[in-house]
Every structure is written in C-alpha cells, then in structure tokens.
Write a structure and sequence with these properties.
GO terms for molecular function: DNA binding; DNA-binding transcription factor activity. InterPro entries: GAF-like_dom_sf, HTH_MetabolicPath_Reg, Tscrpt_reg_IclR_N, WH-like_DNA-bd_sf, WH_DNA-bd_sf. Pfam families: HTH_IclR. Keywords: Transcription, Transcription regulation. Helix 2 crosses helix 3. By secondary structure, the protein is of the alpha+beta class. 44% of the residues lie in helices and 24% in strands. The chain has nine helices and ten strands. 32% of the residues are buried. It folds into two domains: 68 residues, Winged helix-like DNA-binding domain superfamily/Winged helix DNA-binding domain (Arc Repressor Mutant, subunit A, Orthogonal Bundle), CATH 1.10.10; 168 residues, Beta-Lactamase.
Length: 247
C-alpha cells in the first residue's frame, strides 16, 4: 500500500512538472486514470509536504519543495560534477559552441555539465526538447528499430508539437530518421541549419552510463566551425572523457 501511494504521488508530480501551467484535480484524474478521491488524498499530502501548491480552489502546480529536492539530488549524480574540468577544457576547442552531456532516460533527455566559453558550467539543466530537433535524441533513435524510433518521435510530437524551424526539417518521422541516417558520419550526427537557419547541433555517442544511452553534444552558431572540425573535436573530447574514466 505504501509503495503504491508513493508511486501515485510521483506520477502526479510528473504530470504537474510537465504541464504548461496549473492543472485541475479533475484533469489529473483524467490523465492518470486515478479515482478522484485518491487524487484528492494524494494532492493533500503533497501540499502538506511542500511539493505541490494550490494555485486556486481547483488547480495545482509544483512547489518549491520539489525544486529543492531536485537540486539536492543533482549533487549526488556523478554526471553533474565529475566531467566539469574536462568539459571546460573542451569548451576552448569549440569557441562559442555550447557543450553538454545528454542522457536518455525513459523517453526524456537530460543535459549535464552544460559548458560554454563565457558561461561557466551548469551541472544539470533538465530536459524537455523535441526529439526531432535534437541531435543526441536522433542519434539515440537511430539505435532503435524503425518501429520503436517512429513511436518515440510520435510521443515527442504529442508532447512538444512538430515545429519546423527550417525547410530542411521533414514533416514525417520516417523522413526525419532517413535524413538523420544520411547525416551521420564517423559516429557523429550533425544537424546544420536544422533547428534554425544559422544553427548547428552535433552529437557523438559515448559508452552507456549505468545502462543509459549518453552522448556528447555541441550546439550554437553555424558559422563557428565546419562539419569536419566539429567531428574531429567531438572525437577528441570523447577520448578525454573515456580515457580518464569519467564516462
């Protein structure tokens, strides 16, 4: 019973943090499939614990306790701390491009050790990016079967929509996968003028981290580096990360 209650509460928190704004109890019941009575009891406990706040008589949103919990938890994740020195060294190779480590977890993309020349390092920057516009996301999708990859893209479409910032981005998931296969060279996927007319994003696969797919990514203004330069430098930083036992 206790485990079931805990999982129900975590499920509601997940729905709340992914919502665009406050969510009513009735909508949470619809989305979760839980009985309204269980919703009310679970929300009451989360409000008492400071993890959820009541925005109005009928709607709820995440509260500061959840943010505090997440920040404290990030300190216990090696990916949030161990790669910092290597990533800051790598930032000097990439000029004004932003580097990060992208990890796939249960359909979400998490970004760790995000580093830029003038921005310092952010240990953890969360998730929430359309899969069809993400170089690491598409790199991971290419490892799946065609059926599973298309299903993942369709789930992303339902969550984030299907923005097409440039004419290069196909409207169809299968065509996106076909384009990504053609754009992958030497284990590196480069999306040039894909998420924007003057933008480039690239990713190289790293060894799995505790069973989860992970990639080193670089993104930013397209004019800074050519494809060959990006590819060579990603391989170099991959060597630093793997030979040093960081990944």
């Amino acid at each position: 019973m206790a485990e079931s209650t805990l999982l129900r509460g975590l499920g509601l928190l997940r729905l709340l943090v992914r919502a665009e704004g406050p969510v009513s109890a009735s909508e949470l019941a619809r989305l979760s499939g839980m009985h309204p009575t269980s919703i009310s009891r679970t929300l009451a406990g989360l409000v008492d614990g400071g993890f959820v706040r009541r925005v109005s008589y009928r709607s709820y949103a995440p509260d500061l306790g959840l943010l505090s919990l997440g920040l404290d938890a990030a300190r216990h994740c090696p990916l949030a701390t161990d790669p910092q020195l290597v990533m800051e060294r790598a930032a000097r190779l990439f000029g004004g491009l932003m580097l990060s480590l992208c990890l796939a977890w249960r359909g979400s993309l998490f970004y760790f050790a995000q580093t830029g020349l003038s921005l310092g390092t952010k240990p953890f920057v969360g998730h929430g990016y359309p899969l069809h516009l993400s170089s690491p996301g598409l790199l991971f999708a290419l490892e799946d079967s065609q059926e599973d990859a298309i299903a993942a893209l369709e789930r992303s479409r339902r969550t984030f929509g299907w923005d097409r910032p440039t004419a290069q981005v196909p409207a169809d998931p299968a065509m996106v996968l076909a384009w990504a296969r053609g754009a992958r060279t030497d284990d590196v996927l480069i999306l040039r003028r894909w998420a924007g007319p003057d933008h480039v994003s690239a990713a190289i696969r790293l060894p799995d981290h505790e069973g989860h797919a992970i990639a080193l990514t670089a993104a930013g203004p397209a004019a800074i580096l050519g494809d060959g330069e990006i590819r060579n430098r990603l391989h170099q930083v991959k060597h630093w990360l793997t030979s040093g036992g960081i990944i």
